[in-house]
Amino acid sequence: EPEVTQTPSHQVTQMGQEVILRCVPISNHLYFYWYRQILGQKVEFLVSFYNNEISEKSEIFDDQFSVERPDGSNFTLKIRSTKLEDSAMYFCASSEGRWGVGKLFFGSGTQLSVL
Amino acid sequence: GESVGLHLPTLSVQEGDNSIINCAYSNSASDYFIWYKQESGKGPQFIIDIRSNMDKRQGQRVTVLLNKTVKHLSLQIAATQPGDSAVYFCAESGGATNKLIFGTGTLLAVQP
């Protein structure tokens, strides 16, 4: 069964450093998303991406965050200058259609620890 | 500083019993609802979805019920198995936003 893959599974960084989280969505999917989950809390929406541009973003997704689809298969989330409160599990997801039309398939996540 | 996380509601059932997990959603304009299962250390896994023009949908061993009047969603799992142990999230979307909004989650613990 096709799946969303994320690398790395764990990322440890120093506060103020830049990190790039990588994702390979399911190949025929058109919509891509990043979510995050702070330990023991809800899964929170960060951003959705379609047709090479951001279609929606949350208040969490400030100027320190950016997303990119650098080629036909990868989808990345960059945090320019990490803060302690950025520590969380970051999930990439993809779908054939926007919600209501296509199911979201999630990757296994990247656990980001900011020290 | 001290971090405070949400205390997850927990449902403890015996293997073989039926489980019912409830969710109250927030947006009366939401028109699409999904249940996800999240096992420890993994991403959310799709279980079943339902649109607002339906009030019941059945899958394999799972049933989702939607009551729009009281903005309530439930997931019924028949003959619960140890492999069903996980955190279950409801999620909603629709209205003025395309965001998929997740609920708090319920921890299902299946006792053998």
Properties at a glance:
heterodimer, A: 115 residues, mainly beta, seven-stranded mixed beta sheet, four-stranded antiparallel beta sheet, 11 strands, 0% helix, 50% strand, globular, B: 112 residues, six-stranded mixed beta sheet, 10 strands, 56% strand, disordered N terminus
Q: How would you explain this protein's 3D organization?
A:
- The complex is a heterodimer of chains A (115) and B (112).
- The relative contact order of chain A is 0.33.
- The mean pLDDT of chain A is 91.
- Chain A is globular.
- Chain A starts with a strand and ends with a strand.
- Chain A has strands at residues 5-7, 10-13, 19-24, 31-37, 43-50, 53-57, 65-68, 75-79, 88-95, 105-106, 110-114.
- With 115 residues, chain A is mostly beta strands.
- In chain A, strands 2, 4, 5, 6, 9, 10 and 11 form a seven-stranded mixed beta sheet that branches. Chain A has a four-stranded antiparallel beta sheet with strand order 1-3-8-7, with no helix packed on it.
- Chain A contains no helices and eleven strands.
- By secondary structure, chain B is mainly beta.
- Chain B has no helices and ten strands.
- Chain B has strands at residues 10-14, 19-24, 30-38, 45-51, 56-58, 62-67, 72-77, 86-94, 97-102, 106-111.
- In chain B, strands 1, 3, 4, 8, 9 and 10 form a six-stranded mixed beta sheet that branches. In chain B, strands 2-7-6-5 form a four-stranded antiparallel beta sheet, with no helix packed on it.
- Chain B is globular, with a radius of gyration of 14 Å.
- Mean pLDDT of chain B is 88; it is low at 1-5.
- Chain A binds chain B through residues 4, 33, 38-45, 48, 55-56, 58, 91, 93, 98-100, 103-109, and chain B through 3, 5-6, 8, 31-32, 34, 36, 38, 41-46, 49, 51, 89, 91, 93-94, 97-105.
